[in-house]
Write the structure tokens for this entry.
Amino acid sequence: MQEDFHYYATYCAAYLAGYDHAECMDICYSAQFVDLCSATLLSKIKAPAAAATTQLQLEMMDTRTDVIGLQNITRIWSSFHFLPKDLKASHNRRPKVYMNKYRLICGPNGELVKRTAELAKGKSLQAAGIAMHVIADTWAHAYFAGTPSLVINNTTDDFYEIISGDEGETERKIHFRHSTSTPDDPGNSIYSNSLFQRNENTIMNLGHGRAGHLPDYSFIKYRYMPAWNDYRIIVKDNPSDYWNAFCQLIYAMKYLRYDIGEFSTGTYSYDIAAPYETRIKTILGKRQIKASDDWKAFGEELSGEKIEDFDINRYQDEYMSTSAENRHDTFLGKFTDAAIAHKSMVCHEIYSSGNKLTGFEKIVHSVNDNRNGLFKKKHG
Amino acid sequence: MTKLQRVREIITGIITVLIALLMLLEPSEGYTAVIGILSLVYTVRGISMIIYYFTMARFMVGGRTALYIGIIMFDFGILTGTLTDVPHFYVLLYLIVIHAFSGAIEMMRASESRRYGGAWRLKLGHSIIDIIMALLCIVFLSRLSVAVIIYAIGLMYSSVLRIIAACRRTKFVYIQ
């Protein structure tokens, strides 16, 4: 997903869930910031590197794909962009080394989605924003894993767009090129994707690189054959998935606001979105690379307030000009605390499932943090 | 990393540093060592690829190619080991590509880091060194000993990084 959904659509979902304009802005800013909070940015503002929620392209190219490098990549991408659906998934006669990667395949409504919502409840709006990013991405990035893996994330070259028209659905072959500087061309079904690399652990095989940005576009419905699915074809219906994602975000935020007692996966606030269903589905189905303008207009109509454009620098001065002990109370301080907490939870769950791809964990000591009432653990 | 992985990485790193030192001390004899190492690398990669096929790639669509590549690479490793006279031009060509590519990546990384306000000077330094190494290979294309020395320095650099990585403690402060 991109800025259109993580920023503007999340604003709309937050508003429909009952937050006021200012709260919606904090939530959607945090949701979008997940895509920009890299180790490089954190180093610039002197924030903890452990709070990184993404990696710049060249940061990844710079990362050694040895065990430690791969664990760092997997911690970030599995936690924030490719939340695993089923850490205990089974498959006949597959060795553990294969299953460790197979079990990191992302998908909606897994146990970790529930844990994500539960962790954010009662926390800051920044924590809510991070959780909304993670939950939304489980829909967009389904069927890919947040760890470099040829055997999981590779695909064949046969992608077909399924286009609905007056005469039903027709199929059109999708052509890929490897130029990131040339914009995708939906009109002619020409898109960019990553180069095929035979190395299992190269970053080229991280996430949905082989499918290009197709998972990030709300309008597209397509079919393809992933490497992991025993030669079975997958049909990815983004307009439908994004609609579910939107309604699940509303539901999740109502849960965070204590309007709902217990979070259940597979439950959506269709009723709240229903009056706007036609409008939302029109935005989702429109063939465009970015739907920001449409979502923004919809959000401003909903709240009657102006939605400021996203500015990566907005809170950096506040963070840098605050003393170290008070930084936890700044906008970015709350964001980094929430990001580390979320990453810890996901990595702990992955490790506890017997999977070492996010690293090894050893609790050295535990102390109570009186100020936040938080619980700190050291892992070595 | 498990303790076993750490020990393995450190031992491999130390052995490689020692080989590189020997090559630096005896560049004329070192060329044979370069061929030996290349042969070993291809043989090990071939075997790894075959293992990779049986543990992972055979479950993926089109994974059988990994088996063929593994066998070919293994063959190539054995073949290289039996050769006594591989033109050193190819070794230098290999070094030029490796260093030029690393240098270009590091330079782009430095530029990106600078754009985001992060540390960039060290990266720029690395990129310049890599590019100088590539240029040296081109300038001294006809000298065998230069190829050996540059190869040895590169080997030593990656071995030291391997040892450092193995010694690093992956400690994170988690807030739950």
Summary: Chain A touches chain B through 54 residues (CB under 8 Å). The radius of gyration of chain A is 20 Å.
